[in-house]
UniProtKB/TrEMBL annotation:
InterPro entries: DDE_dom, Integrase_cat-core, IS_Transposase, RNaseH-like_sf, Transpos_IS6. Transmembrane segments: none annotated. It comes from the Bacteria. The keyword DNA-binding applies. Keywords: DNA recombination, DNA-binding, Transposition. It comes from Microvirga arabica. The keyword Protein biosynthesis does not apply. Residues 64-185 form the Integrase catalytic domain. This is IS6 family transposase.
Amino acid sequence: MKGNKNPFKGRQFTAEIILWAVRWYLQFPISYRDLACMLSDRGVQVNHTTLFRWIQAYAPELDKRVRPHLRMTNGSWRVDETYIRVKGEWVYLYRVVDATGQTIDFLLSPKRDAAAARRFFRKALGQPHTVNPRTITVDRNAAYPVAIMAMKGAGEIWRFAKLRQVKFLNNIVEQDHRRIKRLVRPGLGFKSFTTASRTIAGYEVMAMISKGQVASAPANDMGTQRDFIATLFGAAA
């Protein structure tokens, strides 16, 4: 969509219908076929494969467009990984929230090692709504201390940041995984790593919006959230 002023140019359906489908698929645990039936009930006949293509196109675009509007998170990081099935294999979804449960960032990775952890932390630190952490709470995964020590040495993480390997302190992020796992379940696994990455980016960013991480789109105010997303794409709500 880069360089395209109208992200819906060439689509058979209106921006309103596309964004309605994208928002609801990324926010609720439904399959593409379920969504096609829901649209049909509104008089819109769209194939489930078309809905899949919409998610692949607009979920990562939504993630990119929402990022500058997110509230600042705090410096108490709670880090954990959960498992996602891709092509019948388990891969790792790294996730970090702050002490209040606000999502800081996420990264899907085929490996669970120090290099993956470092890549994840770098991604999180590069976001406009994050700060360099004061504390980083993780589980007993030995890769985290290695990654954090290397990043402190390189000046990427504040050298006085405290690493805590205390499992019960991470209940907040473990509970937060459930939101994403609930959305993944109806799809019965992803067919490719790219498909998974794009879809999960959409799940995560809609979760941020639902949590009220956008100042102009309060939590539980779906009408305002709809209008906010329409504005991001230059479409009438």
